[in-house]
Amino acid sequence: MSAYDELMAFTRETEALASVAGRTGWDQETMMPAGAAEMRGEEMAALESVLHARRGDPRIGGWLDAAEAPDEVGAAQLRLIRRSHARATKVPARLAVELARVTSVAQGEWAAARRGEDWAGFAPRLAQIVALKQEEGAALAAGGDAYDALLQDYEPGTTAAEIATLFDALRPPLVDLRARILDSAATAPKLSGEFDEAAQMALSEKLAAAFGYDFTRGRIDKAVHPFSSGSGTDVRITTRTDPADPFNCFYSTIHEVGHATYEQKVDPAYLLTPLGAGASMGVHESQSRIYENQLGRSRAFTTWLFHRMQESFGDLRIGGPEEFFAAVNRVHSGFIRTEADEVHYNLHVMLRFDLERALIAGDLAVADLPGAWNDRFAADFGVAVDKPSNGVLQDVHWSVGLFGYFPTYALGNVYAGCLHQALRRDIPDLDAQMEEGDLSAALDWLARNLQRHGSRFEPRDTIARACGTEPGAEPLLAYLEEKFAAIYAL
């Protein structure tokens, strides 16, 4: 075997083990009994110890020095293996294992604290996680910015300064649009009533199928915080139900299907290699957001959904498809990021980006986090946070150590705006198809132009290749202005 072949064989085994670790994480959030948390922490730590050792194996350096890429795909494989190896050699094994153990246990503790509104009980654990992530960021940065170093795990090639510049461009138009909507005399109806949770799950499965989810390679379960897990031939999603709010279930499902079908549509030749997953979390989020919003909340698709909901739940007390479209896109200053409308969503993300950046820099103490969160939320949303589960305890991310993840949500929205503009250019009769519940043309376009490539290209290049232009904020802002100006008669 050549050095390249030996390296790829070794890497496939590592990817297979990482897949097992991912499945273990999925089980922890869906099926694992609560009493197993401590043992699961030890199991996750053991898996991470093996994975960290393999990713930092000294033989990889020798193989990389000797390997010759057989083609452009091979060159991309080597680029990602080199990046992974460099990261693993910078982070001490002790630290990697401790992070895996602590964050595994913390996940259950966060869920309990969220249920019990117990910020004080969870704060010491979060302080421990922040300290570990600061140490990890410093090891990766080697004298540079620790937050930038952590960000590379989610959006390679991007810096916090670049993200801050993008957010500075987004924030004023979003705040202005929000103000004009809330000052408008026009209103959007709010769905009301009780909606059977079993019926929600049944319609959720129909929606997943409509958006191309392959149930022979996946399944839907419930979780406190919806997520997607896995790649290739085993990609699972979760959703949640609320008898008073079926949109929470339906759009959580569509969102996670966007993530899942991205993984399912990656070229099968890349399975169990570094190319066999999404290019970045920002690109991943572009798929979940375009599925959920530009497609799923469009006037055309909500016309189809309106009739399906009538079949499932009877009279919705909504005047018709046009009122239903407005109800789906109703703008309001809610507490919860995952339930936020498109106008408010990025403001939620910007809040978290600034706070987690300050935490990693040491400019904000964990003890002061609720106050900082509540002050910022009141300033941006005009509402006082009433309890921790609506504020600092609402998201799972920090409890599992995902510092640097949050800004990719807004990046995903920006990328989705660019993709939607290009998709509309190439499929002029898209609305007529979606009114019939037929999303195949849009899904085929995304699969062909983006999803099949997996991680072959760098994130921004992945978007630029699909769109034919470099990504920017303008298409997203234009889309939001056009959509909500129509709904609220601005």
Automatic annotation (TrEMBL):
GO terms for molecular function: metal ion binding; metallocarboxypeptidase activity. It catalyses: Release of a C-terminal amino acid with broad specificity, except for -Pro. CDD domains: M32_Taq. It is an enzyme of class 3 (hydrolase). Its EC number is 3.4.17.19. Keywords: Carboxypeptidase, Hydrolase, Metal-binding, Metalloprotease, Protease, Zinc. Belongs to the peptidase M32 family. This is Metal-dependent carboxypeptidase. It comes from Mangrovicoccus algicola. The lineage of its organism: Bacteria, Pseudomonadati, Pseudomonadota, Alphaproteobacteria, Rhodobacterales.
